[in-house]
């Protein structure tokens, strides 16, 4: 029976890999795979393993660690490991439930398999995922290897750490299930565990308190002296014994050489075997919980495939984002509809509350002496938030044709022109992104202060710049959002695969890179005429009418150019939408 289960797992992996390779015959996946492989090569493999980077930030800076510093790393790693172990006992409040897919439930549960066989199958299956995670972590951190081990020893070390954490989490959930069956409530369990942890930690500290070396000013003079003092602290018998089991788990990862690595494999392997035996003999009932988890997982997956993220909870009634009039422009009906589908916090009152808090915070920093650095930090954060909104915002605010792509046949029955429908779909993401940018501009207007800045960036000029940028911000957001909506109508198959957030793989990463790079290039080209015109107008007219009037004149010119480009884009997208046929576009 074990051989049959292993064969099932092996063939599942082979067929999964085969299906991914076969879909590379489609151009949309082949192009994405090429770009994705190139991206990962540049990020992960551009430095040859035989010629690793050296210097202050390369591996050479890490391989010369002293035993004292390595002991510090081992102690902190062991402490984090023990905290994760404690959380596995404190956090769960439900019965044990291994994660089985719906296909595994339908195939394995009716089969003549014992509960132990199912546990055995699932534990072995999870090791494949854990091994892949260990290899990925090793690959991503290969320039940060701080001990004398190589990539192989570190991958095995990561596998031991992740596998034992996983086994302990499963084992603790089984034990918690048995406690629940005996009438122990989650509150009583947490109190018992917290009491036990307090007793162990408090007893250890009480035991070693008088033996702990006290820090002197000489111990805190430099990094080396601090490391030496911490080494003496963790070497105290009580603390070292408390962290000893976790250090055994970290042993293969922290081994300095190959003999030490093989020597550390024994204790770590013994701990792994004890955890496996503990789970194998627990035999707590988990079938009902597994089925319930599979149903919830299927609902979440369906929501993700529909482009709704994790919003798999049942729909509930919400208050209207604003009162929709019986008559008026049809575009505002789309704004009302799409805002209703967003988070309840994304409303006008939230915007005013955030604006008020920003004003209070910046004013409080401005009136207090010596708070200039904090105001500077606020302005840096605002710059970062504004850049992230412009770069990532159009990918996140998808309440437009991207979300309504499956409903295009219904939308085409409305008595509206194509450009009206496209404009209505764009209003919600434009409103959300513009609100964020307005808050960023408000923050910058209140936080950019200083003697050097105030000498040329006067209060009146600062307010005018904020006002002008606030006028242009919705136009820039609209221009940005035209690109993904155009891609939705031109390449619906690509957008459908990108819309499915459950999709994984190098080819999907490559598709998203292609799209983001293409969108950025198109937006930059579209903004170039407006930027050149603004620069020429300011340069030519500031000598005649002053800098303030020149900036306002340039803003008006930029607005005219952007409105013209947006109108052309809406007209073209409207024509494309009227000719769009969903059934013929989304072929497998």
Runs in which pLDDT lies below 50 for 5 or more consecutive residues are 48-64, 309-313
Order of helices and strands: HHHHHHHHHHHHHHHHHHHHHH
Strand content of the residues, in percent? under 5%
The largest sheet, given as strand count, sense and whether it forms a barrel, is: none
The residue fraction in helices comes out at over 70%
Number of strands: 0
Please compute the radius of gyration using only Cα atoms: 30 Å
What features would you describe in this structure?
- The chain has 588 residues and is mainly alpha-helical.
- It folds into three domains: 1-47, no CATH class; 68-303, no CATH class; 330-585, no CATH class.
- It is built from 22 helices and no strands.
- The chain is globular, with a radius of gyration of 30 Å.
- Mean pLDDT is 78; it is low at 48-64 and 309-313.
How would the blueprint of this fold be written?
Layout: H1 2-22, H2 27-45, H3 67-90, H4 102-108, H5 115-140, H6 151-181, H7 186-208, H8 223-234, H9 237-254, H10 258-282, H11 287-305, H12 330-340, H13 348-367, H14 372-396, H15 408-411, H16 418-447, H17 451-456, H18 459-490, H19 492-499, H20 506-545, H21 547-578, H22 582-585
Helix pairs in contact: 1-5, 2-20, 3-6, 3-8, 3-9, 5-6, 5-10, 6-9, 6-10, 7-9, 9-10, 12-16, 13-16, 14-16, 16-18, 16-21, 18-19, 18-20, 18-21, 20-21
């Amino acid at each position: 029976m074990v051989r049959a289960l292993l064969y099932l797992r092996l063939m599942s992996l082979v067929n999964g890999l085969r299906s991914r390779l076969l879909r590379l015959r489609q151009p949309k996946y082949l192009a994405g795979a090429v770009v994705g492989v190139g991206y990962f090569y540049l990020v992960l493999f551009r430095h040859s393993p035989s010629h690793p980077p050296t210097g202050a930030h390369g591996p050479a800076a890490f391989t010369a660690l002293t035993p004292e510093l390595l002991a510090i790393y081992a102690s902190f790693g062991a402490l984090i490991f023990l905290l994760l172990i404690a959380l596995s006992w404190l956090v769960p409040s439900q019965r044990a439930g291994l994660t089985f897919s719906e296909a595994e439930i339908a195939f394995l549960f009716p089969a003549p398999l014992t509960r132990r066989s199912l546990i055995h199958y699932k534990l072995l299956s999870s090791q494949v995922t854990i091994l892949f995670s260990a290899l990925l972590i090793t690959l991503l951190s290969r320039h940060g290897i701080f001990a004398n081990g190589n990539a192989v020893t570190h991958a095995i070390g990561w596998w031991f750490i992740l596998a034992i954490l996983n086994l302990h989490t499963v084992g603790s959930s089984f034990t918690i299930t048995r406690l629940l069956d005996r009438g122990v409530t989650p509150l009583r369990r947490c109190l018992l565990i917290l009491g036990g942890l307090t007793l162990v930690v408090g007893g250890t500290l009480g035991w070693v308190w008088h033996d702990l070396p006290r820090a002197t000013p000489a111990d805190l003079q430099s990094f080396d002296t601090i490391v030496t003092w911490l080494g003496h602290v963790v070497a105290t018998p009580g603390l070292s014994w408390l962290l000893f089991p976790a250090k055994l788990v970290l042993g293969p990862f922290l081994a300095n050489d190959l003999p030490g690595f093989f020597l550390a494999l024994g204790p770590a392997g013994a701990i792994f075997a004890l955890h496996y035996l503990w789970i194998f003999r627990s035999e707590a009932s988990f079938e009902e919980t597994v089925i319930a988890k599979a149903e919830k997982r299927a609902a979440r997956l369906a929501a993700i495939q529909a482009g709704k993220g994790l919003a798999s909870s049942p729909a509930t009634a919400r208050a209207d984002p604003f009162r929709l009039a019986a008559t008026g422009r049809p575009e505002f009906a789309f704004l009302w509809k799409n805002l209703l589908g967003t988070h309840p916090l994304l409303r006008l009152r939230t915007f005013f509350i955030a604006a008020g808090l920003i004003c209070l915070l910046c004013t409080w920093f401005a009136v207090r002496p010596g708070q200039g650095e904090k105001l500077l930090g606020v302005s840096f954060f605002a710059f970062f938030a504004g850049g992230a909104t412009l770069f990532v915002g159009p990918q996140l605010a998808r309440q437009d044709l991207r979300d309504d792509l499956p409903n295009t046949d219904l939308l085409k029955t409305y008595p509206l022109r194509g450009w009206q429908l496209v404009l209505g779909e764009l209003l919600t993401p434009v409103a959300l992104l513009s609100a964020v940018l307005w808050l960023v501009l408000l923050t910058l207007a209140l936080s950019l202060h200083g003697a050097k800045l105030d000498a040329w960036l006067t209060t009146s000029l600062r307010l005018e710049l904020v006002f002008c940028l606030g006028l242009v911000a919705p136009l820039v957001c609209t221009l940005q959002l035209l690109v993904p909506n155009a891609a939705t109508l031109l390449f619906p198959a690509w957008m459908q695969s990108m819309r499915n957030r459950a999709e994984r793989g190098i080819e999907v990463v490559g598709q998203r890179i292609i799209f983001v790079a293409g969108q950025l290039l198109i937006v930059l080209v579209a903004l170039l005429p407006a930027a050149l015109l603004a620069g020429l107008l300011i340069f030519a007219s500031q000598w005649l009418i002053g800098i303030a009037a020149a900036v306002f004149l340039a803003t008006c010119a930029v607005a005219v150019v952007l409105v013209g480009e947006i109108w052309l884009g809406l007209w073209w997208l409207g024509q494309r939408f009227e000719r769009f046929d969903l059934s013929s576009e989304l072929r497998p």
